[in-house]
Amino acid sequence: MKTPRTIVVGITGGIAAYKAVNIVRAFVLNGDSVHVVATPAALRFVGKPTLEAISRNPVHTDLYEGVAEVRHVAIGQGAALIVVAPATANSIAKLAAGLADDLLGNTILASTAPLVIAPAMHTEMWNNPATVANVAVLRSRGITIVGPGVGRLTGTDSGAGRMEEPDTIVAVALAVLDRAMSAGEAAASAVPDLAGRRVLISAGGTREPLDPVRFLGNRSSGKQGVALAQAALARGALVTLVAANLEVAVPTSITTVLVGSALEMHEAMTRAAGTADVIIMAAAVADYRPRSVQVGKIKKEDVGDTLTLELVKNPDILAELSTASRPGQLIIGFAAETETDADRLLALGRDKITRKGCDYLVVNRVGQDAGFGTERNTVTVLDRHGVIVSEVSGSKMSVANCILDLIG
Ligand code: C5P
Question: Considering only CA atoms, which residue is closest to atom 13 of ligand 1?
């Protein structure tokens, strides 16, 4: 059984506070111990009993309660991670100024844990120069800012400022926490190490159309690629995701280009590759596509008992990007193989990295029971000489972080 980590969830006074309940719930279900520190304004939007029931811990609000146990610093000192969601414009301003006029402000100032905040406010407030400057200050301190997304706001209006979806906030927060803990670092030093790096990631599985309703596809869910994108984002990277037929949601804060087929992915990746510092080809790309796509639905009445498809080879995107890479650009490929023998799997990987010409190759075994669609992954990473540089088994998020560690 895993050891629970103490996560402090700070809730400030915005309407999105009601969604913080789901964030608390997700951390609890993840096996972590959650302590909610809510501002008095937050409790006008969501009830203390709800938060206490869901977090399974008392909810603290008042600076002048628990003085004997020095609560104003004790909560922050015990935290492995602090997440503030929603973070209002006012709370962001207070954080930027280092104010400690309430329990949450004291908790944050007294803590060396990584801090993740999820802003939520109206578009005008988000775009106000004061907020822009405050957010820049927080970023410069290594604080991870998730969102806000663009979408429907409280009233009839919509725009930037909507709090990022709870599952995205949780995923990013856990990536930040995993990283801080797995590196064994003092939590304070979990400064985003990929700040400003442009990371281009492909994810999902391509579909090669046969006719308007049918395609040749594969079983990739896109979970590993999306975990890579989330982890890179949490580490400060500017992430572009080229996504083919994902079965998972993508945080709205990630620039996403939707594609269907291998040719579409080829075009999108080639276009985005020029400005990327790092390219990770996590997508399962079809090696072949039907030579021609029928305009109308293929009908068995017309075809008869046997249907023969003629397939032609798709461009190998990874190999092309590797050949065209510019100095300093790092390219990482994936090799999903069904080989069950570990030595033969490695040999396949070594052969593949030589053919593809990329800098690293992430080798994993896939099948009905492994890799595709599952929550966990087991991978071996080879460098361009075929030397094993990393072996990791765990959640797709922890695998993602180990892969990103190679970028340095
Ligand atoms: O050759 P194979 O499909 O096993 O290679 C896997 C790696 O190559 C993955 O990184 C995948 O994204 C990439 N690939 C590609 N273009 C293809 C086929 C695979 O970029 N047509």
Answer: 318
